[in-house]
């Protein structure tokens, strides 16, 4: 969804700092969007990397108006079988990462009376087998956002959770273990989780939902919006 987020924001006149680990995809942001996109190498699991990247973004762009916490990983595994690295990475990227980003941007958003939007998952409402830790990190992100909403309200900083359903595309599953992946899909079909998810929505539709949140009048706040697929699974 990140690339569609950037395209929609740029299309409405925004300049967007894109923070991600080094990759050809990150480099291509400047090629596609020109000066409107500022790709910055950043590991959200590392607070020093986040602090450096946010400072660079604020200096280059002349301030910051919003933060979209979109970075996350999700690998299917049974917690019993999860490797130490899998558990640590989910906690570091999905939960600690947004916390580092929020902490770093607060002084800038206080100056601009800006917004924080964190992307969560429908799996918080119906945790999926094999994605138990992922769901737990997203639930933690929602709780963190609720607390930050009250911490920052007097500063004029609005905080929203965009709880996303299944979205088409993406490369999140390219490194999944084939045997575990097969077991995951067989299980969620049997348990009804696949039917709950429905037919995956367009990432552009999710980007439109983000734009709607960021376009709200400054005197109101959406605490959380859950945007899920309208169509049933085929």
- Give me the secondary-structure category: alpha/beta
Note poorly predicted spans.
Answer: none
Tally of strands: 6
CATH C-level category = Alpha Beta
Please compute the radius of gyration using only Cα atoms.
18 Å
Task: State the major sheet.
Answer: 4 strands, parallel
Percentage of residues in helical conformation: 40-55%
- In angstroms, what separates the terminal alpha carbons? 22 Å
Beta-strand percentage range: 5-15%
Order of helices and strands: HEHEHEHEHEHHHE
CATH topology heading: Rossmann fold
Mean pLDDT metric: 95
Q: Quickly give the CATH architecture.
A: 3-Layer(aba) Sandwich
Task: Present the secondary structure layout.
Blueprint: H1 2-11, E1 16-20, H2 24-33, E2 37-41, H3 47-61, E3 66-69, H4 84-112, E4 115-121, H5 132-152, E5 158-164, H6 178-191, H7 193-197, H8 203-214, E6 224-227
Helix pairs in contact: 1-8, 3-4, 4-5
Describe the protein.
- It holds the Pfam family adh_short.
- It contains 8 helices and 6 strands.
- With 234 residues, the protein is α/β, with parallel strands linked by helices.
- It has one domain (2-227): NAD(P)-binding Rossmann-like Domain (Rossmann fold, 3-Layer(aba) Sandwich), CATH 3.40.50.720.
- The longest helix is centred in the middle third of the chain and has 29 residues, at 84-112.
List keywords for this structure.
234 residues, alpha/beta, Rossmann fold, 4-stranded parallel β-sheet, two-stranded parallel ribbon, 8 helices, 6 strands, 50% helix, 14% strand, globular
Task: Sum this structure up briefly.
With 234 residues, the protein is α/β, with parallel strands linked by helices. The chain has helices at 2-11, 24-33, 47-61, 84-112, 132-152, 178-191, 193-197, 203-214, and strands at 16-20, 37-41, 66-69, 115-121, 158-164, 224-227. The protein contains 8 helices and 6 strands.
